[in-house]
Specification:
Largest sheet: none
Structural class: mainly alpha
Helix content: over 70%
Distance between the termini: 17 Å
Shape: elongated
Length: 67
């Protein structure tokens, strides 16, 4: 069960990284006037916050597994 939680933490981390890259323009998007374009600033802030939280959770999870 511990490994399943760690897997989901990594999935959320990768999803947040993808949303951040999408907002910055590193990943192509089909609709330039869509949802991403209108809410770019708030999505960047939220994705950075999610990256920070998931990174800290993964660190604590790995620390607990190897202790």
């Amino acid at each position: 069960m511990e490994y399943l939680g760690l897997l989901f933490e990594f999935l959320f981390l990768f999803a947040a990284i993808y949303v951040y890259m999408l907002c910055r323009g590193f990943v192509g998007q089909a609709d330039s006037n869509g949802f991403i374009q209108k809410n770019k600033q708030i999505l960047r802030i939220l994705s950075i916050a999610l990256i920070a939280v998931m990174g800290f959770n993964i660190f604590l999870h790995l620390k607990q597994l190897f202790a």
